[in-house]
Amino acid sequence: MTQLPELNMAHDVFLLRHGETEWNKVHRVQGHKNSNLTELGRAQARQQAKILSTIRPTLGAHTLWASPLGRAQETARLAFDGTAFSTDARLSEINCGAWEGTTHEDRVARDPDVVAGLQSEYDMYTSGPGGERTKELAARLSAFLSELNGPAIIVSHKVAIVVMRALLTGDDDGLHCNLVPAQGSVLQISGRVPVTHQLD
Fold first, then answer.
1. Which domain holds residue 182?
2. Which residues pair with 64 in a beta bridge?
3. How far is Cα 131 from Cα 7, in angstroms, rounded to an integer?
C-alpha cells in the first residue's frame, strides 16, 4: 500500500474529469499525450457547466483551475462557461511512460510479464516503463492542493483525480479507478466527505 502525504483542507474542493476523448473511446492510454474531445465529451463539459451554475453562486470567492493538457483545457473552457481560469502543470495526468498511446494489446505485446502481474486498472496506469508512480504523482498533487487558500474547482484527469480524492479524504486505500467521478459530473469533497453532483 502506498502511504500518501497527510493533507487537511479547510475549504471545499470540486473535481471535474475532462470529457470523453477519441482515445477514451478506443481504450488507448493518454497520460501526458492528448487526444481531442468527442461530441459527447463536449456535451459532458456543458453538463458540468449546468451543475456548476448552481454551485458557484454559493461559494463566494473561489478559484478555477485546469491541467494544461488539451482535453482538460477544452473541458474547462466549456465547464467554466467562458470564465477565465488558471493552469497548473501539477494537475496533469500521470505520466505513463512507454505505455502512453497504447492499447491493451500493444502493452501485452511489448511487456507481457509486466501486464500479467497487474492487479487492477489503477496498477496499469502506474506501471508503465519510464512513467510516474503513485508517490511522485501524489507529491505534485499534494503540493498543489496545499497551496489553495479557498474553495477551488479543478478540471483534471482520471488517475490524477483518483489520487486527489484519496488525498482529500485521507483514504490511503482509495486508489481505485472505479472511484473516479463520471465524465459530465462534479465531485465535491468537503471535510473529507465526497459527494457527486450530476444532472438527473
1. 13-95+133-197
2. 153
3. 24
